Amino acid sequence: MVNVAVLGFGVVGSGVAEVLATNGAQIDRKVDDLIRLKYILDVREFPDSPFADKIVHDFSVIEQDPEVSIVVETIGGAKAARDFTERALQSGKSVVTSNKELVASHGYELLQLAKEHGVSYLFEASVGGGIPIIRPLNQCLAANRIEEICGILNGTTNYILTRMIRAGLSFDTALKEAQANGYAEQDPTADIEGHDACRKICILASLAFGRHIYPDQVPTQGITGVSLADVAYADACGRKIKLLGRAMRRPDGAVSAFVSPHLVALEDPLSGVEDVFNAITVKGNAIGDVMFYGRGAGKLPTASAVVADVIDAAKHLGKRNYLGWGPGGPDAAVPPEDVASVWYLRLTEGGEEVRAAFPEAARLTRSGAPEGEQALLTGEALTRSALERRLAGLVPAAAFRVLD
Amino acid sequence: MVNVAVLGFGVVGSGVAEVLATNGAQIDRKVDDLIRLKYILDVREFPDSPFADKIVHDFSVIEQDPEVSIVVETIGGAKAARDFTERALQSGKSVVTSNKELVASHGYELLQLAKEHGVSYLFEASVGGGIPIIRPLNQCLAANRIEEICGILNGTTNYILTRMIRAGLSFDTALKEAQANGYAEQDPTADIEGHDACRKICILASLAFGRHIYPDQVPTQGITGVSLADVAYADACGRKIKLLGRAMRRPDGAVSAFVSPHLVALEDPLSGVEDVFNAITVKGNAIGDVMFYGRGAGKLPTASAVVADVIDAAKHLGKRNYLGWGPGGPDAAVPPEDVASVWYLRLTEGGEEVRAAFPEAARLTRSGAPEGEQALLTGEALTRSALERRLAGLVPAAAFRVLD
Asked: Residue A321 pLDDT more than 80?
């Protein structure tokens, strides 16, 4: 018998309880043991829930129960979640989480703590919701030197962009619709400003390249600056605007990561990823490109990833888990300033100067463009600083990289 | 030190040697031990190979060397490969393979033999080349009851269909081009008749549904009956023709699997999988649909999947491996006769009778259709037997299912 405690009875936590109940017989067969939900920690009572008898309000009940060997943390944030995670690991319990903020900001220390205490710290659900990506990256692609990771990592922004592209909604209208459908929070900042995607690319980059990459090392631009004009110009050149998290190994071995809107060609499988779906492409030196696609959020998809980790933790009780990476530091990631791309530019002034600055550019047109607006794709790949030198003080209304 | 022997120095076997050499330092870090290639078994000599000093011709050298703990079988076929695999497992060595024929026809017995001897039998590379699918299906989706698997599992046929669709080549011309490019064998039967896809869906279905499904339980139709007329009619209704391997859990719990050409809607991510790429979608009761996409064949992609299994085997030496399924039997899979689909039909005769038989059908047109040809999508989903009753003796020139 393997006893599990769930911390936080919100969307994901209640989904975990539901998946353990619904698919319990099959899960027990997978582990060849009985996995049982013993406690649910929450400040609230849930008198009408079928799990009401498992609710406790004091973490120390869980911490001090030697029968509990796996703790599922679905509280979110980096405060109580961090405290409870540390105490659980120190008590010799494995911890499974969907908490991308905590892993992105304190993953290295928590993985070290888990190692010291001979337990697992697992977080498949922290990236891509239910999509298997952490374990495939760590195990299935283990024979590769990973060269680049590129993904649509946030379902909320992908939904908004999809509605702008397909229904012609403005950003504000699409955001309101996403909120009405439950795809965006009432405070949508973390999604639309790219912070959520940033945390996820940090986790993927740390795992792929072997040192902790922190969110403040990853320049992040969200989608609030994307307009319907940009959508129209992208369409005019056979591309779609997507918010991408990217991390790459540079020729000198350094790692760069960033989050920003990109123009993605229709032939690229990422361009077909719509609505709240996520997709992550991984390039390895042996395997080439592989892509993982599915629902990046949602109660049951995310819960199914959490429970897969619970199964893994249960199989490895008392055994070594190989998931982890080395410490971060200022040299673990270098700014992406000299990553060269073709750029999409939209400007509202400077007609003559722009034509002179980018003589080889492909000019784009759209119907209904206001007087003086111009848009182009720079003909050659430029670093950001080279782009700014060419612009010589002109400030574009939009400047997005074009994905190779 | 973990010593490895590779059986068969062909495309995949030499790729394994290359990946172990190229990415050796990183692989050793992953295992926290030294993985060394000690022997390569082949009937030939390779005096100019950098691995010439590792070549042996007698399997018993490997079998009797207690230092060898992992054997990589890349011989193919089910004769010598089976004999050597059994002897390796009986000698307490883990075996890693890319051999789909052997796994599809004898996987259950070999997995049992591995279990009896406390070693692993791993075959990530047997399906989807380098695409991680076996381990994600077994581990990451372990919390799900799998409902259906549907995939483009054969790169050769997908290349031929892509060339028919995009370049208007006939089947024969596209096949010749595939042979010239090294994407098809000189004897292409196993690919174009669907046998290769059949073996792969057998392996996936066995893993997903828990009992061995044998190739002779899987009705298999290849692509030799697909014509440019069918490509044109599919295009006329916004679909592409793809060869799919499918396995599904039926409402009564039984499993059905089959391989056949399907019409796939452009909105379905599978329709965008082109050339030699493979993609596999898995539907779970918690996760919904997830898709895995990448190169389904090729020396280094396949070798990278083999080496990932070598790493896994090295981490689990002397420990239990949970990969496996139960015995097959006549009741493990039921024929898909009562799986209902909308059907695409092309007929060269019987105009009146066809219109009467399918009054609700969507009729399709193409330019240049010969006198008397008609094509349609049946309006409602029909089982194969219901379709045949409607056809009342008329024999269509093509009858393909439309993917839901």
From this structure: no
Tokens of A301: 């998809």
Tell me, which fold does domain B134-296 have in CATH?
Dihydrodipicolinate Reductase; domain 2 (3.30.360)
- Classify A134-295 by CATH class: alpha beta
CATH architecture entry for A2-132+299-315: 3-Layer(aba) Sandwich (3.40)
Say if B2-130+299-315 and B134-296 have the same CATH topology: no
pLDDT of the residue at B338: 84
The percent of residues above 90 in pLDDT, for chain B, comes to 89
**A363 interfacial to chain B (CB closer than 8 Å):** no
Cβ distance A135 to B131 less than 8 Å, yes or no, reads: no
Residues of chain A contacting residue B322, judged by C-beta atoms under 8 Å apart: 30, 32, 315
Specify whether domain B2-130+299-315 bears CATH 3.40.50.1970: no
Taking only residues 98 to 127 of chain A, the set having a beta carbon closer than 8 angstroms to any beta carbon of chain B reads 124
CA A249 to chain centre: 18
How many residue pairs from chains A and B have C-beta atoms closer than 8 A?
Answer: 170
Backbone angles phi, psi at A13, to 5 degrees: -60, -45
B88 φψ region: left (φ > 0), alpha (ψ -120 to 50), beta (else): alpha
Q: Where does the pLDDT of residue B55 fall: very low under 50, low under 70, confident under 90, or very high at 90 and above?
A: very high
Which of A93, A100, A200, A299 is labelled catalytic? A200
State whether A294 and B289 contact (CB < 8 Å).
yes
* Of the partner residues B287, B303, B305, the one whose CB lies closest to the CB of residue A304: B287
pLDDT for A337 beyond 90: no
Average predicted confidence (pLDDT) for chain B: 95
Report ipTM for this prediction. 0.91
